[in-house]
Amino acid sequence: MSKFLQRSCRRSRVNFQRLRILFSSSSGFSSFLHKSWGNHSESHHVLTPSSWFWFASKYRHFSHSFPRETILVSTGSFAATELSTSDGLTVEGILANNWTILPENESDWKSHATALAQSIHVIKRRLQWKNLIVRCTLLSAELNKPDLWDDPVHAGKISREHGSLLGKMKEVNALEQELLEHIDMIKLAREEKDVELESDLLKALLNMRRNSKEKELEAMLSGEQDPCSCYIEVQAGAGGTESMDWAAMVMQMYKSWAQRRGYKVTVMDEMPGEIAGIKRATIKVDGEFAFGYAKAEIGVHRLVRISPFDSNKRRHTSFAAVAVIPILGNEASRVQINESDLRIERFRAGGAGGQHVNTTESAVRIIHIPTGVTATCQNERSQHQNKASAMAVLQSRLDQLEMARQAQFNAQHTQSLTDITWGNQIRSYVLHPYRMVKDVRTNYEVSDPDSVLNGDLDSFIFSYLSASLDKEEYDA
Amino acid sequence: MLKSCAVSRLCRPLCSSLSLSSPNSLCLKPQVPLFLRPPIYSTRLSDLRKWHDWAKSLASSIGSTFERLDNGPDSSHLCRELKWLMEDAVEDHSLLHQMGVESDRRVKTRADLEELYNLWKQRIEERRPFQYIVGCEHWRDLVLSVQEGVLIPRPETELIVDLVCDAVSKNEVLKGGIWADLGTGSGALAIGICKILGSGGRLIATDLSAAAVAVAAYNVQRYSLQDIIELREGSWFKPLDDVEGKLAGLVSNPPYIPSTDISGLQAEVSRHEPRLALDAGVDGMDALFHLCDGAVSFLKPGGFFAFETNGEKQCRALVDYMENNRSGSFCKLEIVPDFAGIQRFVTGYRRQAI
Ligand SMILES: C[S@@+](CC[C@H](N)C(=O)[O-])C[C@H]1O[C@@H](n2cnc3c(N)ncnc32)[C@H](O)[C@@H]1O
Questions:
Q1: With contacts defined as CB-CB under 8 Å, which chain A residues touch B253?
Q2: Model ipTM?
């Protein structure tokens, strides 16, 4: 450690051993620090002496960092010691103070700290913090068994789950620790009457406050399948063209929603209606947390409007069912499909085929004989590609079936289109006589159906996800 | 055909500079598929939309007329083709979604609007096959250039590559030997199989049609397989003198349609595809019997073959012929159906010398 650093440490009356980091308002550097938080226990390695020095010479005030043994133990088990500032303030303590939360633009550390403490509280609740710790301890005990790898599949599963739980715990702890250290530093800055440092720290707190909202959201998506890409399927209800047109509108809504979120959308299969709309369609939505969000849409969507297909301009009610299937990223957890269990058919085949016909229709249907599960793809330009895509859909359907069988997965989120009963209505879209979209599960509603149908769905999705978490907690 | 052996040669150069000695191949210049042409035309989005709406209404007006007439495409097929034509013709696909919105914007296209009008007219009025319109066919994971004079590869034929894959995985030795695709057309089977054989493979593809050889050479070049696939112009086994008794594998999708059936085929096929690629004599078996005879002398013991046929009747006839007229020459004969459930392929092995 440089002399400069040592001297500065001694100069302060605050217990620097307990301080970990100094946040600057220099956004590049703070985001660098921020990233290193993700891997909390290692973060002291990330900050090389030279970067420290750079940092130290840029700002006159600093602390230095020591890993806090009380928090993370290298074996990955958790000591559930409560974190605190040097004068003993904890996150719970901050909440108990009942400081007022002011708008973000008010530079008041107590307000920022309270907002952050609340976020941490929400995140912990959403992650079911106590259960998480228990489960994590259980898993590490299992991981320490000498015969663990006798069953490699099981071992892989355990260590993956352990890794993911640990990751979440580290992240929350890092957030908590960061908050407390900032408070320490602010107090120090005040004692030292260092206005510049104080304002830097306040800015850093504000940044954290903003980011924590995103983290609250992510905490809602803590299911094993939530980070996966997914298929979204829409099927028209009874009622002919009217419903098929509605099904096409619903599909369009998801395409726009997915594009807004930056997901990649691919049409896998589409059965057009005779006059308008679709009978049924499947799209693939590629991207992080696609399933986690889209699962909120599973169920029946109802539309009330004056039908454009009714010359008498009567009001019609139409239904469309939505199913969402996760695409498991982890090969090991996927169902093994036996080639000999498959029947592959040319979809809508007829006639002599071969050299007799020239057609651009090369759709393929694959039937998994033991389960009767099928998948069709007709949107690719070659039969081979249609078959590959249909196979991918079939694989995910079978995976989903297996998850449902093992019931390790919220039963509602494994419903396939065939399971969804038309009574299972989740949302109403009314275009006439008044205009409104209302989620019957959460009672969340908006008065602008057009924006919703254009893909502005996030508020519906978030309100459903948080409501279902609250419900889970209540049930528990 | 007389001097097909002399004519047979490696066909390496890119097709624009093809220098085959056969006189009619001199003028053969394979066309570049639409999707590979440079996007040098610019058109207003609103004009493109006008064309699209016109094309769509033309397609819709067909309803199921063609289907009733000769099992041709109905309007839903035609609409899908229109979508693909747009994809091939327009540089920036994302603009296609905005056709209705920002109509003042311009788009870059690979064919000018007038040509697009002509092409779609040909599609509907002349029943010119969609694949000739866009100059390509998506086949397995390949995009193959095709044009008049060359058969558009069929989805059924994709399965031959899977059959070869199975055979090769059962017996790795086959991978290292010489393979042949007779009547290669666009080169579809040759290219598909080479991807399975890998870099150590070697394949000779033949065709009697100079147009086919030229297009196949273009496709081979596009997939950088010119060091693995050798193209030879000539009739069936004639250009293969040097490999008699040495082939590890032999595949062919020869013409198999009985002469009298040709005129009754779907207009896209009967009016536009080369008769040489389809017509196989009175019972459609001429080429298949010939291939079968050649397989006896050209395959090495243990060598694999797969032929495509017109259906159950031809499969049976071929197997009968092999068992009775060429008894002792082949083993493990199998009839394999396509995805429509039609008995489509005959596969087997040249019997090992005892
Ligand atoms: C049905 S096409 C198959 C083309 C290609 N293999 C495919 O599957 O798409 C039959 C091919 O055999 C070729 N052919 C016809 N008679 C031939 C002959 N006597 N010798 C070699 N090729 C011939 C035709 O030119 C045509 O390309």
A1: 355
A2: 0.89
